[in-house]
Amino acid sequence: xxxxxxxxxxxxxxxxxxxxxxxxxxxxxxxxxxxxxxxxxxxxxxxxxxxxxxxxxxxxxxxxxxxxxxxxxxxxxxxxxxxxxxxxxxxxxxxxxxxxxxxxxxxxxxxxxxxxxxxxxxxxxxxx
Length: 128
What we know:
The protein is mainly beta. The chain has no helices and eleven strands.
């Protein structure tokens, strides 16, 4: 069992940056591939980014590629999502998710059902 807690959301203006953190407890994060998803009001949950257990492989949705960077610090049991050049369409609740996997270098899981654990979410609001 692992618990996930997101932080770092807030209200910013278009073009600003935010860094989201997802801290885990219960089991070491190194056992899990990690992902970030987001959900805007009235829309489905959307894949944002993923990272392999090792951190060596990262993946991004086309809508955020080049602006967002995912990283992890297994020693701190924390995953980060650095978000630059934010746009109003990035406004959503952001969730981190964990998938237990034996494969250290595979982190490409884009569907919510692929993940075993979820955080409670953190709100990101980007004003025009």
